[in-house]
Amino acid sequence: MEPKKVTIKSLQGILDNLKTASEAAIGTYLYKGLRLQISKYKASGAERFARLYHRRRNQGLCVVCGEKVTHKNPRTGKLYRLCNEHREKIDKKV
Ligand SMILES: [Zn+2]
């Protein structure tokens, strides 16, 4: 995953999350060519997967491949959790 570019100001927010050991601090950040990585020590694969799923879901990205999701579910008015391609492959396979 690409690191997120940060400024000293946004790093301050990340540090605030870090102070409370909040998982919101988790991520890979890029500051002036330096990479900072905050991750959970000894996280299980399932934990990592759950976090990835939720992060993608919250950012409106396909939970499988991370592509931007552009279509909304007409029933809920919310973005689909899958991109068109994966929606074809997974959701429509009934
Ligand atoms: Zn996808």
Key phrases:
94 residues, alpha+beta, 2 domains, three-stranded mixed beta sheet, 3 helices, 36% helix, binds zinc ion
Topology readout:
Layout: E1 4-5, H1 8-19, E2 27-31, E3 34-38, H2 45-58, H3 84-91
Parallel strand pairs: 1-2
Antiparallel strand pairs: 2-3
Brief account:
With 94 residues, the chain is of the alpha+beta class. It has helices at residues 8-19, 45-58, 84-91; strands spanning 4-5, 27-31, 34-38.
Can you tell me about this structure?
This protein has 94 residues and is an alpha+beta fold. The protein folds into 2 domains: 1-39, no CATH class; 42-94, no CATH class. The chain is built from 3 helices and 3 strands; from the N terminus they run βαββαα. A 3-stranded mixed sheet has the order 1-2-3, with no helix packed on it. The model has no long low-confidence stretch (mean pLDDT 89). It binds zinc ion.
Biggest sheet overview: 3 strands, mixed
**Binned strand content:** 5-15%
Question: Count of DSSP E strands?
Answer: 3
Topology as a string of helices (H) and strands (E) = EHEEHH
